[in-house]
Every structure is written in structure tokens, then in C-alpha cells.
Amino acid sequence: MIECPDSRIVQRRLLEQKWLNAERNGLNQKKSRWQCSCNLNKEPVEALARFGHHFFKTYDQTFMHENLRRLYLSVQPSFKKLIEDYPNAILNGPLLMSPNTLYERQKYKLLVVGREADGWDREVNHLDKQMDTYRRFNVGQYHDPSPFWTLTRKVESSLGNELYSCAWTTISKFDGNVSGRPNDHEKAVKAFDQLLFKEVDIINPEICLFFTGPAFDDRIAEIFKGVKFNEVGIWRLRQFCRLSHPSLPAHSYRIYHPNYLTRSGLECDFMEFIDSITR
Hints:
The chain is of the alpha/beta class.
């Protein structure tokens, strides 16, 4: 059976073909912009390759952001309904991803997943503003130092990635306290957990770290149906495990929240494991 190629691959191939056709027809307007930096006269092949690499990286970045935006717009009515159902609640969110330009350029595209944000903007009527909040936050660059972001910076450095280059999201898209029965609140918020499944598909990370601890394993299992929690080395399953699922990258792991990981004295062991990934 011949499998139908992913729509993203088809669109990329079509764009590649258009670009190559333009080159054959002598349409060099874009190429001329790179004349000085690429030294086209001396190194035409190498310069063309560099131009193509930059061109398609930019295309991938734009494609990723547009797909995230479409995803969030598709559930915007449900976001609004949640706020309407809890009018007196201190309910922040939703947290909507918008990775920076460094993400696609890294040796290892890294996604870190937390439980929920600790206070976030609340704007369900203008989702672009929520995505702007994510960009301004810039994966903790302008946040007071915390165990979560301190460990994230260490992981980026260990992988050989630039600092502040990872992507970040949370399982719970809303955070805060809600009046009324807790079960109603949890059910309403958990309804958006499935967004994570689609976010992973869109941003296509190569390493995914769930800093959620075992308390969120049930929610991970609901998002990624059939996921397997596999032991890693001498770690107990509750402490650290590898997540195996067709929709997750091969290097997907669930570990304690960095706050507890540091207090329990396990951070050094965890970082030794991260170091081993790149050896």
C-alpha cells in the first residue's frame, strides 16, 4: 500500500519545486539579496545551498506559527465558554505556544512540558495577544530565576543548544483557583489537554522533557493513548521514565518537577543522563 504523504511534506516539496523553477528561469531577485554575504561569484554552489537552507528554515518557522494559530482559533469558542462558566474564578490563560526563531535552528529541537503556568495573561477574545505574551516571556528569559527555568537552561547548554532556544508548553492550559466544586473545575480544564498532542505534532521536537512528575502521568496517558512508561537505568519508574509513543520523539522523558528534583538531590544524576544523549 502506498501511504499518502503528510500535507506539510507535500507543501514543502511544491515550494521547493517553485523555487528551483525560478532559478532555472533566471529569476534571481531573491538570490541577489544575498550577493554580498554569500559571495555568489566565487562559491555559487555553496552560496545557493546556504540560501536554500535559510529560505526553508524561514518557511518552516512561518508554517509552524500559522498552524499553531489555526489550532488555537479552532478551540477559541471553548476557551470563551470556560471563562463564562466560571465568571468569578481566578482563572489565567490559555497558555498558547509561539516558539522563537532560535527553536528551528538548534542541533536538537527541545520541548519542555510543565504542569501549568504560575500566573499568565487572560485574554480569550484575542488569541494573538496570548501568543504575543508567550513570545515576550521568551521561555523564561525575563522571569525571575526559578528551579524550572534554571534546569531548562542547563539542559539547553548540555545539548549544545543556544540558551532560550527551547519551546515550552504546559499540560494544563489554564491556571488559577476556581470557586465551586473542584471536580467541575478539573474536568473543564482537562478538556483542553488534548491540545498538547497537536502542539507536539506541529512543532516536531527531537527531545521532549515532561517536568511534571508522576502526579500527571494519568493525564499524559489520556493525551497520548497507549503511551508506555519505561524504566531508565537504575531510576525508579516514579522518579524518571522514558515515554514511548508513535507521536512522541524517541527521546521523550518524564521526570520530577525541577523544584523537587533539586531538593531531592537527583539533579546531578539527571544532568548526567542528559549529557549522555549527545555522546
